[in-house]
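Support reply, case 0932

Customer input (verbatim):
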Amino acid sequence: MTYSIEILLSQLLGEAKHGGGSEFVYSCPFCVQRTGSASYKKKLHVNVEDGLVHCFRCGYKANALTKLIKDLSADVDPELLKRVKSTPTFSADDTLKSFIEGMLEQDQGIDKKYYMINMPESYRTLSSSKSYFARRCKSYLATRGVDDSMVEHYEIGYCTEGKYADMIIFPVFKNGYPVFFTSRGVGTDNRVLNPSREECPLGKSEWVFNIDVAHTYTGEVVIVESIIDALTTGDHAVALFGKDMSQAQFSQLMALPSDTKFTVMMDSDAQMYTHKIVKKFQGIREVHNVLLESGDPNENRHQIHDLLQEKSAPSVGDQVASLLGRKRSKIA
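Our regenerated output:
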């Protein structure tokens, strides 16, 4: 049985851009470790004939596909990798066949390093479009405090057709790959749509927005509800897509460096959930909360710095008041 080298690489590195001849270009998974920040632009050039690999952003290099695959999958048997040749196809014995077919399963699970989804077919990035609707989207986002640099870095886009037509699309990345997305209308268009299980086999409770960037921080990570809250709170903020935190999201946050400190800053109507999340971290990580007097972090974005400076560990009184449903008029 033979398998295409390109199929194997697509499972390891995601969708490729054809660079001409035998060369393919991918998003580089090594950029986070080597530069301190993720890159979702395709800069990793792979020649499937001569096996030469080079990222023109972080400088990663390999002179054989076997080295690239080993760097991507450290748990793969080196002897098995020797059977992978730098040719368009390679013969697969039972061991290699099992390895590849395992990677090709549709639902790889959240513990699989190279899980990814396809974005909607008509998805376009706002930063690459000059259409009237793209300009309208960027103007709307600007009123919410999301500037052009954020739009470009997080590959915020829109759709031109289908059920997401004329909606803003917020991709969610993990390990440099798109794993989920959410969408919302513009201005007075109050539509909010999440993808179906057919589009995203693993739903929003399995992911944390901005987790790749959070891995580059050695200090505080702020946990908020929505993507726009996270974008306007700062690079060190992550979003849960809702008031509660799932076990999968908790596990991803606990996988951050052991000296990471957490601050929970949910919407003002979610104080009960704030303390529920704080309780999960207490005793194993340093954790604080900010109880907003009103609104959400985005609506309080002009005083975010002061709010975070005045945070403290949650008091018993705050927790009791929250559980009783009473709103606090101070920062806790």
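We compared this against your earlier run and they match. Two observations from our side: The two ends are 63 Å apart (CA to CA). The domain at 211-323 is CATH 3.40.1360.10 (Dna Topoisomerase Vi A Subunit; Chain: A, domain 2). Please reopen the case if you see a mismatch on your end.
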